[in-house]
Structures are given as structure tokens and as C-alpha cells.
Amino acid sequence: MSTPYAKLPAWADYGLIPLINLAVAFIVAGLVVLLVGENPFRAAVILVEGAFGRGQGIAYTLFYATNFIFTGLAVAVAMHAGLFNIGGEGQAYVAGLGVGLVCLALDRIVPWYVTFPFAIAGAALFGAAWAFIPAYLQARRGSHIVITTIMFNMIAASLMIYVLRDILKPEAMQEVKTRMLEAGAQLPRLNWIIELFGTAKIRSAPFNVSFLLALVMAYLVWLLIWRTKLGYEIRTFGFSQKAARYAGISEVRVTIIAMLISGALAGMMSINAIMGDQHSVYVDLAGGAGFIGIAVALMGRAHPVGIILASILFGVLYQGGAELSFEMPAISRDMIVIIQGLVILFAGALEHMFRPYIQTLFASISPKSVGMAAVKGEGA
Amino acid sequence: MSFFDVIIQTLDSTIRLSVPLLLACLAGLYSERSGIFDIGLEGKMLAAAFAGAAAASVFHSAWIGLGMAILVSVSLALVHGFASITHRGNQIVSGLAINFIAAGSTIILGQAWFQQGGRTPALAPNERFEAITLPGAEAVRSVPIVGPIYSELLSGHSLLVYVAFLAVPFTWWVLFRTRFGLRLRAVGENPAAVDTAGISVAWLRYRAVICTGILTAIAGAYLSMVQSGGFVKDMTAGKGYIALAALIFAKWRPVNAMFACLLFGFLDALAIRLQGAPLPVIGKVPVQLMQALPYILTVILLAGFIGKAIPPRAGGVPYVKER
Amino acid sequence: MAEAAIELIGINKSFGAVRANRDINLEITRGTIHGIVGENGAGKSTLMSILYGFYQADSGEIRVNGKPATIRTSNDAIATGIGMVHQHFMLVDNFTVLENIILGAESDALLKSSIAKARSELERLEREYGLEVDPDAIIEELPVGLQQRVEILKALYRGAEILILDEPTGVLTPAEADHLFRILKQLKDQGKTIVLITHKLREIMAITDSVSVMRQGTMVATRETKKTTVEELAELMVGRRVLLRVEKGEAKAGEVKLSVKNLVVKDQRGVTMVDDVSFDVRAGEIVGIAGVAGNGQSELLEAISGIRKAVSGSVTLDGKPIDLTGAADPGELRQRGLAHVPEDRHHVGLVLAFEENENSILGYHNDKRYLKGPLLDVDAIMADAKDKIAKYDIRPANPRLKTANFSGGNQQKIVLAREIEQDPGVLIVGQPTRGVDVGAIEFIHKRLIAMRDQGKAVLLVSVELDEIRSLSDRILVMFAGRVVGERGPEASEGELGLLMAGVEQKEAAE
């Protein structure tokens, strides 16, 4: 309470400050580009063109964004309950097993639209299950959920390699993955939607119906958090555990349910990877999307709309980054990992770094806009 | 090969494998004992591994490599300090950010500077920290039992291995026998007590994260300049997280940390040696289970089923002077 | 020749809009024990924190031993010979006594010589002042009385000539407190100057040479202890405020609604905060609990409302028991007609980050009126919120506004509207007008009286004696966890003030 944050107008709080943080992250990333001897402005142009220039690029951008929407929502739901779920990566990976088992069982007998709902259930179930133990240990035994979810990411990696190599891999195959899934487990592509806007024929982009599932989930998360009783309880708990206690909200219940939902959402990312793209369950199928979810949720301020926008931004970085590495051999797609780190740093850990300056600025331009309403009468 | 030789060799690789864990674990100990959680050990180690190998190959000197490793790792540690001490940001978020920044930039810079697919050039012998033969090691080699233990197990390691194991008593001494250590432990437990005693909480914590930076640098340098002859992308492969697990497992104590790291190193060595071959009594154990065991054990410990790991009380909480 | 150890001249300090210290002047004679008394929030602790360098005064001058002193940090204070024993001990719990004592005062980079020095110094202090404590004991294994002794030793080890003690007896048993006083007297005899901050007048009379009274951030009087009385101090402390009389008729007390029997509650440290408390609250009456903050009122409220577990005793609501052992579910108690306006509206009664309408259902979010299946009935909630805003004149009249942006008075109205409009049989209220502007105070008071007149049972806890006196039909005074007396609303301020200060009453007065 020693330095109460003066109020800023909402547009500055939700628009200006995140944009400044993002801009700083990109400026620092630009410095890295300079360091490897390339022109950051040209890099930015290639990036954007690569992502939006052709229908193919757009499709890939949205394909990647699909992954990040799922994992971003996952992190956001936990965040609303005041929990930091670093385990999205592991939850998505293990959920791949749930999806895989459903697909392996059904892909030869039923069409995709029958497999799809079962796969969603499988993903949600396995993802939630992988989140359950850390949630339970936090709620009941007080183990720090951050540490346990990190541990569970590592355990998931070992478990999945074991399952894939020793159990699911067909004898004859070299690569560690399941057999190729057939038509009944392949999700239809949505590239035609982009073609409707007059782009050239899209040959091979894996943009598929999981994107629609992601949008539905974003809507459901919005509904859950802001329109249901459970969401109300989750937010109360996340803002103030004391108020939750006062309101008769069970700490154990909220912690566990929020984490189950979070794990289920992270798990659905594997549908996009398995049924939408690779048509098999393979090693490291989450591919870091679980971690990008953290950046996306922080940037999107844990709101589904913000998450969708942030996911598309990261989709652009992924797709554009791939193009970039053709044009500028010095820059590989790993550039995104740096940007991701910088976004997490500036939009997350250093979230308030620029705030005092912005406040001073606002106060000098228009003192009224930073009214001290809340401070009045808050005496000891 | 006799059973005894197998044991010696397994223990020897246990030592080699536990060294980076031990250095990173002790690194984390300084930071966390001061109340700053650090999940960014992995990133700092990786960046140091790259900086060390890169500088060593460019300047043809292992020592310059080590110096550069320290410079880079300490800089990252200071970023973590800036976010979590000065700006009271979320320590987990900050640590995570550093891991990603390190993972990405080592590859990008490596590719840009050396064009070897993210590798640094293979280091020449003088660019690495080479094995040191302890006095008399050759002479006693033929003595049964003691000979192999001395000449195989204890002798023939790199300087950094000895540094790692000497860092254990040294850390203990710093922590429990020096003024700095007393204050460091105090600030992680009750920063208000430190503040009212007229000591700067921030400066103390900054010094702690600098210590963390130096030790993760040595851990990274060991990976790229001792264990392998150059940097390979993502070469830490989760070792920073195992070190974190070991730190919890050791209940934030230096000597325990050594045993935890040796245990985790031993599990790793065993997994490599067995390669899925059956163990006596237990039967066949999947390699992956052995690899996951450190994490599983840590989770069980955290759940309070084997003892209780109580972290420093002020850990993870930014210090705000109360009214 | 009496010489001033400390002179404070024109000290001012504000926190935001709150003026914690206004133009304070104070002179403390060397080698004496000087008491500073005042109610909670009178500004005592702030003043002492300024003296100890924890805060900076906005203006004013500090002189130590006649010389102007610049005290910017605790270090400066220590260097000028000022030591402080904080209300919440500044000790590292898992360190030994020795380690705590040398922390920050180590003689060199290695501990060995410091520890040896501290050990012999401790022996000397033990001899001179009777401050014995095992130097190798771990702090958390020591009883609070000894922990406090370590705090005193810490200050003496640093060469403190002036020792400030902030509410030192709050956590002590009477025997421990007596021992502390003996030590303080001994320190005085050795020439140390002692500043004792307390709200307990008995202690002031027993041990100090002179006493200053603070009220609402100002220094209202300084007296020689010998020449003053408890009555005078009590009056100076609470002041002769204009009593806000609320129009109210005779209470028509009906059947017992809430009954508390032999209740014992401990806080998280295991200290008994509520000690064998029993009372009834009947329909149609307001029972007020007076007392200085920290005497167990908060824990009492929390136990009754199901937020905190009780150790033993029983509470019945409408004749049916409340489960105290498993911390009864506050939601269930609400359904049974127990509404609770908590003391801490910022962290407990409200979620400040919520919109106003969201807070207007906190705790009642399970109510069918606000739900459509699993979904919140946003229209119903909004209509309900608007209704309450109109009825309670909550401003600004915007149910979508973030709760943090309402003033204290309006925030409190949000809580009151929510709890009262549920038409509960029993209302328990903690500090209903803390940090609330004058206009809202009157409104809130009228509401509480109206509740009573509708035949509800109201239990009111407040540190504002005015409020207790003007609202209550019966007044219970709590001191050190116990109910030390019951009075009617006609009881004088002085009488209640004495009870609140823990001064034992002649049994004849009963």
C-alpha cells in the first residue's frame, strides 16, 4: 500500500501498456536480428509477408494459432483461479495419448465426425488427468503447483517416449510414432475458407476444423469465467482467497476443478497436431505450444479475445519465421523462442516497469484521468 | 570385465553426470536461500555453455571461455534480479522468460556466427578444461581395489569437476560461517528482520543472484567445454530442472545437495549403462522410468510423503516495506 | 539536571490523503520511561517508525541528545543509539538467539569472532539486567516472552541508549509482562531512556515517569505520570467527541437468536485470542462489543461466521448448533439466516477487482434468484444491484464500475446492502464505519437501528466507542480475549474506557 497505483483509463490499462510492453519485446528482438547482421526492418517485412502474403501462409498462421489458443486458454483459466499452470506442455503431450487411443480404435471403422467428439473427450480426459495430481497435491498437501507441474512436464516426456517406443510403435517402423491414422481420424482441412477470399489454391497447409473447436472453446471459456457460478467462484478465489473463504467457496474444489479444466484445454491442442496435421502420435507433439500458451495468456490478459489475438500473433511469428529462415539463413525459426521469452519477460515479469512513467505522463497531460478516487478514506 | 570394474565405471560416470547438476543446484541454492526462486537455472546454464564454447574457440583459451560464460550467465541472473527484486515481478515468469531467451538466442547466434547448425566449432584440447591426473595415480593403478578407485574414480577428471565438489564445503562454509551467509539466510526467511537491522534487502539479494550466475556459468562451461568438445543446441536438456528438483530434494542444504545430485547422476548413469538390460531382482526397468525418477521422487517429497521440504519462508515473495 | 534524550519538533507525515502525524512536538527526558498512549490509528506507531528511520517525516526535526539528527534508515537510528522492539518481532525464526543478535552487527566478514563477542556480551547483559536466555536456542522454539527478550538484547547489543517498545505486552501473559517491566526499570536505572507505546493505561500508571497522549494523529497532552489519573488519560485518549446520537426507541428484546457459550479461539500462531466467552444476542436488540483492536474481537466474529475454527465452546443459531470444529461453511450459515459484514471489507467482504454488481452477490452466488441453471442470471443480478444502489444511495450509481473505484463509505454500503437485503435473522457487523465518511456513517447507523426495530438480532463489534454507545442496547467489553464487563448504553465513556484498558473494576460497581 506504500505506493498505491493510481488509476489509469481502461484503454491505457488494457491497450496502451500491453502494447508498450510488446513493442519493447520486439525492439529487443530487433537488436538480436542486428546482432546476427541482418536488417530487422526487412526481417519484419518478410515475416509479415510470409504470414499473410499468400493463402498458404495465412492457413499455416491459423494452424499454429489453433495450438496456442488451446494452451493459452488453459493457462488463462488457471490464472483466473490464481494458479500458475506451467504444465500445459506435459498435459498436451499426455493428452496426445488419449487422442491416439481413440483414433487407433476408431479410424478404420467410422468417419471423422464420429471420431472427433470421442477424440475431444480423450484429449480432455488425459489432459485433465495429468493436471489432477499437481492440483490435488497443491490443494490437499500444499506442494507448490509450479514445481509439480514442471516435474510433470519432465515425467510426461519420459512416459510418452516409453509408451510410443515400447508399446504403440509398430515393429517394422524406424521412427518412434504410432502407425499412420486413416481417414476416420483425419480432420477436414479448412483451407477452402481462405480460398473464398480469392487467394491462390492452397496446396498443403494443415489448417483444419480444430481451429473451429478452438474458437468454440474460447467462447466457452469466456462463458465459464464471466457467466457461470463456477467461473464466479474461480475468479473470487483467484483475486482473494480470504473473500472466497468468506463467501463459502471451497479452496480445494476450486483449485482442482480449475486445474482439470486447464489440463483439458491444454490437452485439446494435441487434436490439432495429431488429427489435423501429422496423422500419428509422435514424439514431442506439443512442441513447446504449452509454453507459448503462457506468453499468449500473459499478453492476452487472460481474456479469450486477447488470447485469440495473441495466438494469431504467435502464429504469424511461427509461419513468418519459417519464411524468414529461407530468406535470411542466419535467422531460424528459433527466433520465435527468443521473442516468446521477451514477451514473457516484458508483458509478464516486468509488466509494471513502464507504468509509473505512463502515469506521470497522464498526470501531466490531464490530472483528472488519474483520479485518486480509491485512495480516499482508506485510512489505517 | 569384472563386476568391480563395472561398478567403478558406473560410479565414474555418476560423478561426471552429477557435476553439472551439482553446480546448478548449488547455484540455485544461493538464489533461493535469499528468497528469490529461480526456475531459470536451465537457461543460464545453456547460455553459459554456448558463451563458453564460443569464446573458447574464437580466442583459443578455455579460461577466456569460462570468463565469457560467467559474464553472460551473470547478466541473465541480473535480468532476473531486476525483474524480481527491483520491479517485484513474478519470479516464476521471469525465470521462464530467461529459459526461452537463452534457448532461442544460443541457436540463432550460434548459427549466425559459426554456420554449423547451431553448433560451435569443435574445441581443441587447449580450448577445453582437460583431465587432471592426480599425483601417483599411474603408480597405484595396479594396486587392487584402492588403485582403481584412486586412479579411475578420483583421478582423471577435469578441473571443473574438482571445483564442483569443492564448491560444496565452500558453500556450506559461506552459508554458515560468514557474515554474508548469515545475512543471505536471514533475508530468505524474514527480509523485514534484515531491513530493520539496517541491511539493504535488495543489494543482498542481488549479490545472491550474482553467485547463482557464476555457478550456473561453471555448470554450463562444464557441459560444453568438458563433457563435450563444443556447444550443441539445447545441450542442457532439462538438467536445470533436475538441479531444481535436487535442490528441493536436498531441502536447500549444500551437503544434501551433493548427495541428491549424486543420486540423480547415478540414476542417469545406470540408465545409460543398462540400456534396458534387466536388473537383478527388479527385472527389466524401462530407461524412461530411470530418467523420470528424479522428478517422481521430488514430487513424492513435495507431497510430504518422505519428510517435508520447507522452502525458505520468504521465497517467491517480493519484499515490500510494510506500513 | 534533566536533559532531553529525544526532541521531536513539528513532525508531519501523511500516507496519501491520510495524515498520520500532524505537527507533533515531543520531548523525552534522558533516563526516564516515557509512555505514549492512544487508540488504534492515533499515529503512535507511525511516529516511532519515523524515529527509527523506517519512514521519513514529510517535515519536522528530530534531535537526539540535543543535536539535530538525520535518520533516514534504521542504520542511522542504530548509529544514533536508538533501538526498537517491534510489535511483530523482527527475528529470523529458524536462527539461533546468537545469530539473530549479531545479524547486521557482525564485527567482520567471518562469524566466528562476532559469535564469540556476542556470547560474552550476552553474558554481561544477563548479569547486569537479568536478561537470561539460552544463546543457542532456536527462536521458534522459544516462548514469545523470551523472543521479545531477544529483541531487547538485539537493541542493547547494538549499544542502544534509547529503547522504543511498540505494544510490548500485547502478546505476553501477565507474568511475562511483569517480568518485562522489571527489566525496563532496571534498564532505566542504568541510564537508558525508554519509550513505551501502549494502549493499556494500567501499564502506563505502573511503570512510566511521564506520558504523552495521541489522538487522531496529534499530540494532545503530556503529563507527569504521578500527577495524572487513569480517568484523565482515558478521557484524553478518546476525547470529548460530540456523540452522534441516533434516534431510537426502546429495544423490545425477544427470544435468543444467537447464543455463544464458553467459546475459545486461537490464532494461527496458537495464541488464545478468545478466552471462554459467553453471551446471548436476542431478537430486536443490538449487542455491542467494545474493546481496543486486537483483544479478540476479530477472532470472535470470524469464529461465529464460520471463517475460523474454534478450539472449544459452542455457538447456536436459532437454537440449533453451528459446527465450530470443521469451520462451518459460511455459505450454509448464510442460508440459515446469519449475515456477516466483516471488519476487513477490502480483502474479505469485497473483491475490489470485481464490478459492483458482482460484489453485490458475493456469498449469495448460490442463490437461485441469481442463477439460470449453471449460468449467472446477469439481468437479475444487474437489476438487483441497481435496486440496492438506489435503496442505499450508493454512488456513483453504476453497477458496472470496479469496486476499487468506490469511496470507503460507498464500498461499505455495498457490503451492508448485500447482507441486510437478504433479510437475515442475525446480523453480525465488524467495524461498520471504519474509513467511512461522515454522511455514510449516519446512514449506516440508521440502517442498523432499523434492523433492530424489525426484530433482528444484531451483534456489533467496533473500536469506536461512540458508535458502540450510540447504537447498542447492551455493551460487552472485551479485553485480552475475555469479556471483562457488561454495561448498559448509559455507561460513561470513562467507565468503558477503563474496562477497555484492562483496569480492574471494583466489584462493587457491578
UniProtKB/TrEMBL annotation, chain A:
Record's keyword terms, sorted: Cell membrane, Membrane, Transmembrane, Transmembrane helix
Transmembrane segments: 15-37, 58-84, 113-133, 145-164, 207-226, 246-269, 281-299, 305-324, 336-354
UniProt KW Transmembrane helix keyword: yes
Keyword Membrane found: yes
Highest taxon of source: Bacteria
Membrane topology designation: Multi-pass membrane protein
Database matches in PANTHER family: ABC TRANSPORTER, PERMEASE PROTEIN, GUANOSINE ABC TRANSPORTER PERMEASE PROTEIN NUPP
Protein name stated in the entry: ABC transporter permease
From TrEMBL, chain B:
Membrane topology of the entry: Multi-pass membrane protein
Subcellular location: Cell membrane
Organismal lineage: Bacteria, Pseudomonadati, Pseudomonadota, Alphaproteobacteria, Hyphomicrobiales
Descriptive protein name: ABC transporter permease
Record-linked Pfam families: BPD_transp_2 (PF02653)
Top-rank taxon: Bacteria
Transmembrane segments: 62-83, 95-114, 159-176, 206-225, 231-250, 257-276, 288-306
Species this protein is from: Mesorhizobium retamae
UniProt keywords, alphabetically: Cell membrane, Membrane, Transmembrane, Transmembrane helix
UniProtKB/TrEMBL annotation, chain C:
Keyword annotations: ATP-binding, Nucleotide-binding
Record bears the keyword ATP-binding: yes
PROSITE patterns: ABC_TRANSPORTER_1 (PS00211), ABC_TRANSPORTER_2 (PS50893)
SUPFAM superfamilies given in the database record: P-loop containing nucleoside triphosphate hydrolases
Domain of life: Bacteria
Keyword Membrane attributed: no
Domain ABC transporter, residue spans: 6-241, 258-505
MF (Gene Ontology): ATP binding
Entry's family note: Belongs to the ABC transporter superfamily.
Protein name: ABC transporter ATP-binding protein
Protein source organism: Mesorhizobium retamae
